[in-house]
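Per reviewer request, we include the raw input and output of the structure prediction for the construct analysed in the revised manuscript.
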Amino acid sequence: MVELKLNDGQSMTAGAAALHTPRTDDALAQALAEAAPHMRPALDERPAPAPRIVVLLPCLNEERSIGAVIRAFQAALPQARVIVFDNGSTDGTAQAAASAGAQVMCEPRRGKGNVVRRMFAEVEADVYVMADGDGTYDASFAPRLVQTLLDERLDMVVGARAGVGRNAHRAGHALGNRAFNALHRLLFSEDFGDVFSGYRVFSRRFVKSFPAVSGGFEIETELAVHAGLLRLPVREIETPYGARLAGSASKLRSFRDGLRILLTFAVLAKETRPLMFFGALAGATMAASLLLAAPVVREFALTGLVPRLPTAVLCMGLALVAGLLGACGLILDSLARAHRTKAHVLSGGRGPGARGRPALGAASRHWAASKRRSSGRGIEMTL
């Protein structure tokens, strides 16, 4: 073993000067290059680092249940961090969460969409588990959801709620859930049977590529459409769905949130499937034009006269509008395809939990750069 130390302002011995020559440096670089093929298998055989798992619990006035939910997830995933995002609660939710051992963060802007956007931006992990703090989701299923995501290298696993119709508390909620699920399958994708489940596991790639726009409960719709838009690998696993604790109230408002979700469906259809959206409008407009034009054309064929000139003008205007809508759909569809391609490329990356190690080539380049920077500075080299 030969140790060579160079310090600023000190002269080198003759033996050290003989060692520190361009020929010696070249020989060292060649030796590293020859050793690289033998070192790579040993490095590849090293066990992969355990994925960083975090449990995210958005909450609003869930003081009664949040402590039990935190303890359940801590028992199910002892290696995971549990973070509660308090959405401006007016009770003791934050204090109860901190007492149960969770990290507490705050998002003052009300709405689940605002909380999800903040969670995805603030938290760094490899696997993200998201659930509600009301105790309706079974934490014991979390390991299965996480393991499915890792084993099958998926980007999202959804805990589809079993018995959601029985435990939705209101007939309107259950009916709306079935109707919106059917509409989602019709407009976007058949990958999901429960679009509005709040029990989900995400990969880092999904979380960091998701452009959250919605501010409220319609965020679940965005999550499902985003996965379908980029054709990300997803899966649903049925999980138990329980009733809320006595005395707690759902934050979902049937008519207000139902209208917001319906509007979100329309906006997402316009943005992601413009040819279908504008094509439907063009078809409806053209059908109205033809329906109004039928008696005018029939009367003209019989008498050669157009007594209802305003109707004829209206029909021509509707036909022109239909043509413009169809053209807009074609143009925007091309732009949407280009956007999907760009988003797919930007979302590409390593799978969940795959925090790769630097390659030997990168290590060699790093060594060469450090050798160049060592000129004029003290270094210690072991050969």
